[in-house]
Amino acid sequence: QVQLVESGGGLVQAGGSLRLSCAASGSIFSINAMGWYRQAPGKQRELVARITSGGSTDYADSVKGRFTISRDNAKNTVALQMNSLKPEDTAVYYCNTDVTVVHGIGFRTLERWGQGTLVTVSA
Fold it and tell me: Could you tell me the pLDDT band of residue 1, with boundaries at 50, 70 and 90?
């Protein structure tokens, strides 16, 4: 019903940059918050950055000043610009969103995850 497709992961040297993108598609009435999470090997999934429909943002302390989240409400997309990458940023990055869909005569809010994209930062 609602799908998230991510792109932009890859291998980069420390100090380099990458840009992740995520597009939501399907029977979407509205999209609420959109965000990026990451999971490194042997660690729990953690929030990287989040942005509300109004544009308010929240970042993990470890990425503040280096990463920037943005969204295009008209295109249902969210992006994560990652600069000054460090080896500890190596992880699978997941796009996440809360979407409202039409459900019968009303609405329903769903949480959706992307398939994940691998970011590897070499020292």
Answer: confident
Q: What tens digit of pLDDT does each residue of 65-87 get?
A: 999 999 999 999 999 999 999 99
Tokens 């953690």 correspond to 46
What are the angstrom distances between the C-alpha of 66 and each of 15, 27, 30, 31? 10, 34, 29, 26
Residues contacting 21, CB < 8 A, separation 6+: 6, 7, 8, 77, 78, 79
- The whole-angstrom separation of Cα 105 and Cα 90 is 44
The two counts, helices (H) then strands (E), for the chain are 0, 11
Q: How far does the chain reach from its first CA to its final CA, in angstroms?
A: 41
Q: 64-83 in b/e burial notation, b at 16+ Cβ within 10 A?
A: eeebbbebeeeebbbbbbbe
Which residues, other chains included, contact 26 with Cβ-Cβ below 8 Å and sequence gap of 6+? 1, 2, 3, 99, 101
pLDDT digits (tens, 9 = 90+) for 36-63: 999 999 999 999 999 999 999 999 999 9
